[in-house]
User: Fold this.
Amino acid sequence: MSVTPQSVILAGIDGSNFSDAVIDYAIWLSKIHQSPLKLLHTIEHSHHSEQVHHEGNLTPNMKEHLLDELSDEERQESKQLIADGKRLITNAKQRAEQAGVENVIAKQRHGTLPEALSDLESEISMVVLGAKGEDHQGSKAGLGTQLEQAIRAISKPVFIATTSFSEPQKLLFAYNGSPTSQKALNLLKKNAFFDSQLEIHIVSVQKSLADATNLVEDARTELQAAGLNIVAKAMTGDPVKELTQYQQEKAIDITMMGAFSHGKLHGFIFGSFTTQMLLESTTQFLLIR
Amino acid sequence: MLLSAKQDWLGNVRDDILAGIVVALALVPEAIAFSIIAGVDPKVGLYASFAIAVIIAIVGGRAGMISAATAATALLMVTLVKDHGLQYLLVATILAGVLQIVAGYLNLHKFMSFISKSVMTGFLNALAILIFMAQLPELTDVTWHVYALTAAGLGIIYLFPYVPKIGQLLPSPLVNIVVLTVIVYLFGIDVRTIGDMGELPDTLPIFLWPDVPFNFETLGIIFPYSVSIAIVGLLESLMTANVIDELTDTESDKKRECKGQGIANIGSGLIGGMAGCAMIGQSIINVKSGGRGRLSTMTAGVLLLILVVFLSDILSIVPMAALVAVMIMVSVGTFNWNSIKELQTNPTSASAVMVATVIVVVWTHNLAFGVFTGILIGSLFMAQRLSQFMYIESDYNDETDTRTYQVVGQVFFNSSDRFIGFFDFKEAVDKVIIDVHRAHFWDITGVAALDKVVIKLRREGADVSIVGLNEASETLLDKFAVHDKPEEIEKIMGGH
Assistant:
C-alpha cells in the first residue's frame, strides 16, 4: 500500500531579490501548517541558438548534424542553469532547516513556472511566490510577467511575498460574497491558513453600505464561531482605493482575496481587479482561486 | 494564449528576419523548379509560395516551419495540368485545401502514429529521387556548357560556405545563381534560361475565381487529384513538424497545422497558385539560420514576392543550370544517406518496408501510395511477429484419461492456424480440458479457431471443457480506452 504523501507548501525560488522573503514566508506558513516545505526552482530554456549559419545550402545528413549541434548547445545551457539553480535551492534549504522546518524538499524542474505548478498541483496545498521574478527585479513598476499565468495555472491558494519578512499580525480579508471569496471564508473558518493569533479584518466595499454591512456581519458571525479574532468593516466607494487606504491605516500585513475570477480576455479588456490590487498595495497577498 | 502568440511572433525578431531572408532566396529557385515539374508557368509556383508561406505563418500550428510550393505536391499535378490545364489545377488546389481542413477537424493527424521510421525514411528517399529525376530533362540532349555550368554551380553551393567571412554571410545557392547568370550573360552562352520556361510574375497577385464549369463532371476530374494532394501535403507537413519539434525541442499543434495547410492551399488557389505543403529541407535551413518564430515564415513569403515582382527581368535570364544545381542540392540533402548503410544493420523487415516505400513512390510518382504500401507491409510484419507469441503445453492424466491443453499467448487471425495445429486430434481420450486463462483472443478469427478445435475434438468422442474463457476474451472488445489504464492492462496481461 502506498501512503498518499502529505501535501506541501511550495515555494518558487529564483535568483530575484524576493527569494529570501519567499523562503521566510514559506517557512512561517509551513510551521503553522506543520506540512513539508518544497523549494522549487524551474529551468527555463531559451530555445535560442547562438550558433546560426546563413550559408543556406542543404548538405547531406544536415538534420542529424544540426540536431547534434543544437542539443549540445542546449545541454551546456541546461547544465549551467541547473548548477545555478542548485546553488539557490541549496541555500534556501539550509535557511529553512536552520529555521527549524523538519521536512524540506528541494527540487528542480524543466519548463516555466506555470507549467511546473500545473504539473505538481495535486501535491500542493499552497504556493508561495515573489511579486517579481529574476527577469523583472530591475524594473520598478509592474509585476512579473509569469505571475498571473502562475496564479491562473492552478486552483490552489497562492501567497505572494512583496516585502522582506516580518511576523504578520493583521490580515485583511476582502470579502464580496462571490464564490471565490466564499471559498476563502471557508478556508479561514477551518483555520486552514493561520493560527488564531492573527487579527482578521473582514472588509467589504459595496455600492450600498447596507449590502456591505450585511456581508461583513454574516462573515463575522461565521468566523467568530470558529474562534477567530475578528474586526469587521463595511465601506462604499472604489474598492481598490478604499482597500489600499484601509491597509495603510491599520498597518495590514497580509491581504487575502479571491483572484482572477474572470477570464483572461475580460482582464485584457477591462483590466483585472486583482492586478490593480497587487500593483497598488504594499502588503503580502494571499490569493484564493 | 495571447502571451504565447506574442512569443511565437516577436520572441526572436532579429534571427527570424535574417533566417527568413535566407529562406526566401532559396525559395525562389525551388518554386520555379516545382512549377516546371508540375508543367505550369513559374509564376504559378511563385504566387503559391508567397500565399502559402504568408498564410501558414499566421494560421499554422508549427512556428518556424516553412511551407510553400513543393515537389511532393507538384508531382501529383502533372497529368491534371497536361490533360485539363491550369484552371483545373487551381480548383483542385482549393478542394485539396477544403479536404485538409476537414481532415483537421476529424483529428486525422492522429493517424501519423501508424507511420514508422522506416516509412518516413522511404518517403524522404523517394522524394529525393523524384526531385533528382525531375532535373534529368534539363541535363539530356544539351551542350557541354550546361554540364559545366551545373558542375560549377554545385561547386559553389558546397564550397562557398568554406570561404572565410563572406562564406557564412551570403547563402551559397544565391551566389551560385548570381555567378552563373553573370557568366552566361557576359560570355553570351546560348543555354536555356528561366525566361524560356514560361511566364514570370510582373505584378502582385490578384484574387481570381478559377474559370471552370462548376458541375459534377469537374468534380469528377479534380477529386482524385485533390485527395492525393491533400494526403501527401498533410503527410509531408506533419513529418516536417515532427522534425522541427525534435530539432528545437518544442511542441507543435498538429490539428491546427492540418487546418492551416488547408487554409493556405485555398488562399493559394484563389490567387492563381498551385497547392503546396511544408518543406522539410527549407524548414531545416530555417532552423539552422536561427529561425524559430512565425516571423521567419512570414518574412520568407513577403520577401519572395517582392524579389520576384521587382526582379522578374533579371530572373528571366538566370540559366536553368543554376536552378538544376540548386535542385540537385535539395535532392542530395533530402536523401537519408545513413539509410543505405543501415540496410545492412537494420532488421530485414525494416529495410523491406523502406525499400518498398521508395519503389512504389518512384513507380507511381505518388508519395501517398508509397506510404500506404509501407504501412501495410510494416503491419503484416508486425502481425507475423506477434503470432510467434503463442504456445500450447499439454498434459495427460492416466487415471481419468484426460488430456489438458494449456494455451499461452496471442490468438488472432495470423496465429489461428498455428493454434489449431497444436492439438492432437488423433489421440483417443475420454476428456479434453482446454485451459485458455493465459491466452488472449484478439479477434473473431481466434475465437472461431477455438470453436473449430472444440467441434473436431467432440466429433472424435471426447468431452471437451474450456477453462478461463472469460479472461481470455476480454481483449476481444474494441474498447481501446480501457487499455489506457495500467491496472486494466495488468488485469488483462497479468498472465505474462
